[in-house]
Amino acid sequence: MSLTNLFKFAAVSQVIDDSEGAAAQTDINSDSVDMNTFDAVSFCVVMGVIDATAATLFKLQASSDDGVADGWSDLEATGITIADDDDEQMILVDFNKPKKRYIRIVVTRATADATVNVGLAFRYRADFQSVTHETAKLLAHEVHNSPGEGTAGT
Known about the structure:
The chain has one helix and ten strands, in the order H-E-E-E-E-E-E-E-E-E-E. Strands 2, 3, 5, 6, 7 and 9 form a six-stranded antiparallel β-sheet that branches.
């Protein structure tokens, strides 16, 4: 399959926003992503300011029912230690063929403040051709194929 436009084949969700990721020493449990009809998901987390001595860790968790009866479980080998000098750095994780339907990000924060600017999930390899994006936090979605130079205007 030729990938002409990423956003026709990858459903994008904002799973951590700036209010959830504000500087603190509390854990962040992102919004979960429902992997029903999708075979893979990529996560992008952008860190903000991390105070000296902060103990911060990124990991993924899974649940078969969004944590209702099947509690969230850590996924093996997904832990990434975030150093206190990793300010403004990105974490990119690609996850294929989840065994459970729901996946989420957990960022543990302790000993000093750490900020998460944003967390995004890109679900892809869907059972169908065109995907739908989360609309609650979507300002615009456009697809352009080889546009010419000129006024970008509205």
